[in-house]
Amino acid sequence: MTGSAPLAGGGCRTAPVLKERGQREVFCGLTGIIWLHRKMQDAFFLVVGSRTCAHLLQSAAGVMIFAEPRFATAILEEGDLAGLNDAHDELDREVARLLARRPDIRQLFLVGSCPSEVIKLDLGRAAERLTEAYAPKVRVLNYSGSGIETTFTQGEDACLASMVPVLPATDKRELMVVGALPDVVEDQMLGLLRDLSIKNVRCLPARSITSNVAVGPNTVFALNQPFLGDTCGALERRGARHIPAPFPFGEAGTTAWLRAIADEFGVSDERFAAATDAPRARASRAIAQASEHLQGKSVFFFPDSQLEIPLARFLTNECGMTAIEVGSPFIHDAIVGPDLELMEAGPVISEGQDVDLQLDRARAARPDLTVCGLGLANPLEAEGLTTKWAIELVFTPVHFYEQAGDLAGLFSRPLRRKGLISGLDKRLEAATPPIYAQAGAR
C-alpha cells in the first residue's frame, strides 16, 4: 500500500510562485531553544544577548522558579554595547562559572542574538577558544538565533547545521532522521522503522552526545521538518544523500514519507503493509472524526513557520479544505517539492512577505480559517476572521500516524468554537425580548 500519488501536471510544484519582499511579521529565532533544550539532555544554550532576550525565553518557556533549565542569557550591558568592556573576557568568565556549577553539560551552544550581531561579537572565534579550553569534556559550538533576517524555526536549522561539521565520519550504511521531535513521537517513528526492518537509524539532534551520530558517503537522511534547508545542505557537503519525500503530517503524508525510506532500503510491499496497515487505519479514522468541521471550508496561510506547504497539503488532501493562498517565508523545492506535487493546483503559492499586501488579499478572500502569527491573529479576529496561531503547530506534537487526528483537531477547534459562539448568540437573541417590546408591555 502506498500514499497519495503525485497529481498529473505536478500539482502545485509547477505553479508560478508569487515572490514578495517587504515588511514582515516574524517571531524570534531564539524560541527554538525552548524545544531543543528539552531534546538534548546534556546540552546547554547560552544566549549572548540583552535583557529582552532573557525575558522572551523565560516567557516562552514558562520556567518556574524552582526549575533548572538548560538555557540562560549572558546579558550584554551598556558597557558591552558601547565597546567599553571586553565582551570576550566577560563571556569566558561566565562560561567558566556555568561549567563549574553544571558539570553535567557536554555540549555548550553560544547563541547569537540581534544585540550580539549588531556589535559584531565573534562567537565563532569564542567557540573555538572555549573548545580548546574545555575539550574533550565539553564541545562548544555557536549559531545565530537572531530574528533580524530569519523566521523563528530557523533557530533549529542553524543549531543543527552547526553540529554537522563536527559529527564523526563513518562509511556505514545508515539512515539519519533529521529534525527535533518530542521523545514520545520519536519513539513512535523509530518503532515504525523497526517494523519495516530498517536498522542503523540515527537521529539528529540526538538526546545525548554519546548517541554516536555520524555521517559519511553511505549515509542517507530524511527530514521530518521542512525548515531545515541549511542542515540539509551541510549534510550533503559531508557526502550524505537526501531522501526527498512529503512530510509526515497526516495519514497520507506519513505513509509517503515511510514509503520513500522503505524504497531506499528495499522493503517489500508485504512488509510495508504489515507495518503500516493498522496505524494507517487508526489515523484515517481519527482524521475523519476530527475534520468534520473542516470539510468544504477555506484556509489562508500567512508565511510564518515554513510548515505551511506540508500543512496545506494535509488540509486539502485529507481534511476536505480548499486553500486560497499558501505563503511560506522560504520555499526550497528540493525539500517541499514532494508536498507541492500532491496539492491540487489552484491556491496562490507565495514566498516571502509584504504583510500589507497579504492582509489586503486575506481581507478580500474572507477565508473560513486564517493561519498566521501571533501579531496578526488578534487584529484579524477583531475583523471577524477566524484564526489559528502558526506557532502552536510547532510546539504541539503533530507528526506521524498517532498524532494525525490531533493535527486535524488543531485546525477544526477554532471553527468549532466559532460555531458554538454563534449558536449561543442566536439563542440569547431569541430568548431576550427587544427593548421596545418590553417597553410596550409595560
Automatic annotation (TrEMBL):
Q: Which cofactor does it need?
A: [4Fe-4S] cluster
Q: What role is this protein assigned?
A: Component of the dark-operative protochlorophyllide reductase (DPOR) that uses Mg-ATP and reduced ferredoxin to reduce ring D of protochlorophyllide (Pchlide) to form chlorophyllide a (Chlide). This reaction is light-independent. The NB-protein (BchN-BchB) is the catalytic component of the complex.
The cofactor note reads: Binds 1 [4Fe-4S] cluster per heterodimer. The cluster is bound at the heterodimer interface by residues from both subunits.
Organism, as annotated: Roseovarius nanhaiticus
Gene Ontology biological process terms in this record: light-independent bacteriochlorophyll biosynthetic process; photosynthesis, dark reaction
Q: In its UniProt entry, what is this protein called?
A: Light-independent protochlorophyllide reductase subunit N
Pfam families, sorted? Oxidored_nitro
Q: What class of enzyme is it?
A: oxidoreductase
Q: What's in the keyword line of the UniProt record? A: 4Fe-4S, ATP-binding, Bacteriochlorophyll biosynthesis, Chlorophyll biosynthesis, Iron, Iron-sulfur, Metal-binding, Nucleotide-binding, Oxidoreductase, Photosynthesis
